[in-house]
Amino acid sequence: MKKRTWWWWPASLALAFALGAALGGVPFAWAQAGPGFKLGVVNVDKVARDSKVGKTKFVALEAEAKLKSDELEKERLEIERLKKEFDDKQMIWSEETRRQKKNDFELKARSFERKFVDYRDALQKREMEALEPMEKSLSEVIEKMGTEQKYSLILDLRGQLIFYDPKLLITDEVTRYFDAHGN
Fold it and tell me: What percent of the chain lies above the pLDDT cut of 70?
């Protein structure tokens, strides 16, 4: 799922003040908003992971990641073996051999680091590509659910919310609703 940018927190704070003033006359006076006010907080990332669609996408991503991870682990073990060999035998090798073995080790270590960073970046990109269409669908479903179930406000937990009453969490309900009504 997309990470919110730095401006999200000040914007949500301003929205909270405006809503508080409009609904209750006092900022953050949610309880004074009236009997018809219904607030929900949803962890969209958890819905993405726990929904049927999300589980399917994450299983595919995890299988892909496992293959690459196994490949990288073999390479890491080889680098460890070369390091141990160098540490154990450097005193008996000639200066030329020592220099060559050290150079080989350093080249393999740098290559491994580049592969690891490339792998991590590619995996994050694949995750974003896989989840982006689901995020759009999920937003539409949350909007529909909010309208049908007469929520006054549904906040995304990713908005750097500092405090909320856990009784307001509707993540599991949204997951069930998304499973029933989403794509």
Answer: 77
* pLDDT of the residue at 164: 60
Query: Which ranges constitute the DSSP H helices of 25-51?
Result: 44-50
CA–CA separation, 161 vs 50, rounded Å?
21
Sequence-distant (≥ 6) Cβ neighbours of residue 64 within 8 angstroms? 123, 126
Kindly tell me if the per-residue pLDDT of 175 is higher than 80.
Answer: yes
Q: 128 — phi, psi (to 5°)?
A: -65, -45
Say what the pTM is.
0.54
Residue owning tokens 């999300």: 54
Please tell me what DSSP assigns to residue 42: E
> At residue 16, what is the residue type?
A
